[in-house]
Amino acid sequence: MRWLFWIYLVNTIFMLIVAIREARRPAVALNCLTVGLVLPIVGFAFYLITSNPPRIRQERLTSPDNESDPLPDSFSRSASTIAQGLRHFTVHGLRTGQAQVLTNGNQTFVQLIESIENAQRTIDVEYYIYRYDRIGSRITDRLIQRAKDGVHIRFIRDGWASRKFPREQIQRMMEAGIECRTIFPLRFPWILSTLNYRDHCKIVVVDGKEAFTGGINVGDEYLGLNPNIGFWRDTHVRIVGEVAVDLQTVFESHWKIASQEQKSIRTSWNKKAEDGREPIPGPSRRAGNIPVPGDPILQGFSVEVGAEFGVTDAIDFAPSEEVLRDAYVQTLEGNPRISTQVIREAYFICITRADKTVDITTPYFVPDADIIVAIKTAVARGVRIRLLVPHPRHVVPGVVGPASRTYYGELLEGGVQIYLYNKGMLHAKVMVIDGEIAEIGAANYDMRSFRLDYEVCEVIYSTDVARELTEQFEQDLIDSIPLRIKDLEKRTGPERIREQAARLLSPLL
Question: CB–CB of 156/258 below 8 Å?
């Protein structure tokens, strides 16, 4: 039985190491110590995989020396205070530009494809999820064609979430001249130290002066075309002007840490298969950025997918009037390599500096104690806070949904209004403050987005953008169910146990 003693001794040493290293994060330390007690030795290995920052060389995009001009006096006190408080977390301070709110996949993909068609020099693409389905194949084909037209294109995908993107399509892209890289690919030895750190960004930059970001990846589900998911509610944003340079900077930083894809020798079978492909329509050369009704690319896509899935109304590609709103914008990057949790700090500042209203839309709500206190304190100051989250029947399976529900009772008692979106999958990540500040990005309210993932978000100062997002929020409330304390009291015993067990893991999510 001597071996049991040695296992106990070694495990005790490991747990002491965890306790010392995580002294500044007691909740994380407690969870890791619990796992270590339940699973000796294995628990410590799990801790190393999930808690060690990736060991890569990368420049820090945020700086305490960041300075920028203040907002004009026409903005409220809360907007000026938030802009001032966020200046040290931004990429390049406060920028001027224009913003266009894009609701759901149909508007986003129409505008994205149009911008790809109109690109003159460069296209930089970075996605957490990039599938080779209907919309993914269409965008891939257009990128390949534009590369053949002479446009310089770079492509980054996340090594985990986009691991199923076909290797042969990467080869097609590279043979057309597209530079392809992967963030933290699933191959030895990188998988051992970077498995838990992902690139959750969704970024496209065109010609260095037009950029897209938000919650929408590339996949049919974002068009509501996945029959297992159904309707998909999301929000993206297109920004034009000098602010696009900031997203370009974020892309450049991620490009440096990504692993280069290797070309493989083409087989005669692959060459024959490509020779048999249907020719891709040539690029359109229209003036302006508005898709026209007769566009063969978008019209063909709509008819093709609609015929296959029988849901033509879900992919209405009829062009809508382009609306670009003048705005001041700050770009923030969440980076697991730095100790400051930039996204979390930004959320905290926005909530604590609000004077009148805060509307939050998020698919994953597992915040830390500081965010909860910030929300409850804001309500106590007289701020109306509304939280829109998915209905339990539309939550992606896992521990996040049950963990989220353990926070609702405390918030309801504190005066927060909570609504459960019941029309389909809610994936938008938006916060609107005092009717003139909006935050749109890829980050959720959980420890993964705060601490483990590369994230990006835009803080937009514009009454017009805030009004559009508030109108969309009000529309979403029509498709939602208000949550009451009595609804939580109806939960069964097994449901409560499952939720509390999931809550224990929340510092690791």
Answer: yes
